[in-house]
C-alpha cells in the first residue's frame, strides 16, 4: 500500500513517465515477427540474403532443414539443433544492433564444421 502511494505521488508530480508502469520487465509482450528459414544442402534456400529486422523487434526464426544441424546465432549467444521433419524456433528480442552471423556448428549426428549460413542484421530504431 505504501509503495502504491509513493508511485501515485511521483506520478502526480510528473516524476514517472506515463506508460512506464504498464510495460512488462522484458518488453516482449508484442506479437513476434515470424521469419521462416529453410536450409537445404547445407545452404539457406530461403529467405535469400540477410535477415533484416529493426531494433527491439520480437523475432521468431523458424528453421527447417534437410539434414541435422546445430546452429548458433552469434552476438546473442543462442544455439539450437534442427533436424529434418522437426522444425525449431529461435526467439529473440533484437536489442543489439549490428550484423550477426548464424553459423553451423556441425552437420549430421557427428559432423563438424563452422561457417556462416546467413546473417541477422538488426537496424537501429
Q: Please, could you describe this protein's structure?
A:
With about 120 residues, this protein is mainly beta. It has a single domain, classed as Cupredoxins -  blue copper proteins (Immunoglobulin-like, Sandwich), CATH 2.60.40. Strands 3-9-8-5-6 form a 5-stranded mixed sheet, with no helix packed on it. A 4-stranded mixed sheet has the order 2-1-4-7, with no helix packed on it. It is globular and about 40 Å long. The chain starts with a helix and ends with a strand. About 15% of the residues have low confidence.
In short:
This protein is mostly beta strands. It contains one helix and nine strands, in the order αβββββββββ. The chain has a single domain, classed as Sandwich (Immunoglobulin-like).
Q: H/E series, N to C?
A: HEEEEEEEEE
- Principal-axes geometry comes out as globular
CATH fold-level assignment: Immunoglobulin-like
What Rg do the Cα atoms give? 20 Å
Q: Tally of extended strands? A: 9
Number of helices: 1
**Cα end-to-end separation:** 38 Å
CATH homologous superfamily title: Cupredoxins -  blue copper proteins
Total domains: 1
Helix content: under 10%
Mean pLDDT: 82
CATH class: Mainly Beta
The spatial strand order of the largest sheet comes to 3-9-8-5-6
Note the topology:
Elements: H1 2-12, E1 33-40, E2 43-46, E3 51-54, E4 58-65, E5 69-73, E6 78-82, E7 88-93, E8 98-107, E9 115-123
Parallel strand pairs: 1-4, 3-9
Antiparallel strand pairs: 1-2, 4-7, 5-6, 5-8, 8-9
